[in-house]
Structure formats: structure tokens, C-alpha cells
Write the C-alpha cells for this entry.
Amino acid sequence: PAPAPAPVSTAPTGLAPPAGSHAGRGPLGSASSGPVSSPSTPSLAPAASVFDPPMPPQGAAAAAALAACRSEAMAIEARTTVESDQQARRAADEAITRLMQRIDAIDTQGIPELRTQRRELIQHLHALSDSLRVA
């Protein structure tokens, strides 16, 4: 003889399945492999999506930020060689100071090449700033 099925309790437990789902089934009505969770239950880890972009290689964001700062530094330098009045030099010096603050905030993640690029860019901007103050 086959064993008798386990008795099912019909006593209220205070836990009801989420609205719009069926007991033992996910929100779309498909069979679920685990317990049904309510929408208010926080997930421990975000689900990976096929639409998420791949993680960039280490230091890619820092390299891109340094390249943008380098092009901005060249633009400031080009403007200041043409403009020589006091107000233009002061505006260029303020732009250089803001740019150095942005460069200082770039996390090079300890990558020697990026640290060298950042150091050289800061040294160049210091020299440019000093030349503006002398003129």
C-alpha cells in the first residue's frame, strides 16, 4: 500500500501569499523553486541582468577622467596664450584651480601609470598657474 499523504493544516498562519500570485507560484503564475516572497521583502543581492553593461577594466573610469581633464587643461592653456589682460589671467587661474580639485578627486586605484599621468598633469597645471601670476 502507498503511504498516506501528510495532513495539510488549514489553520491560519498570518502569512498570506502576495496579492496577484498563487500559493507555490511566482508572480507570473509559473512554478517557483523556492518560497514565495512578498514585494516588501528586500533582496540580499541584486539580480544580474543581461542588459547590465559589463564591468569596465580596472582604472578605465580614472583614465577617461584624466583624459577629459587633460583636454580641458589644453583648452585653458590655449585661451590664456591669446588673452593677456589681468581679468583673463585671473579667470584662467581660477579654472586651473577648479581643474586641479577635480584631478585630485580622481581615484587612480593605485595603478602606477595613472598615478604618473595625474602627477604630470598637476605639475603642468602648477607651471601654467605660476606663469599666469608672473605675467
Q: What stands out?
A: Helices lie at 60-82, 86-104, 112-134. The radius of gyration is 31 Å. Residues 29-35 have pLDDT under 50 and may be disordered.
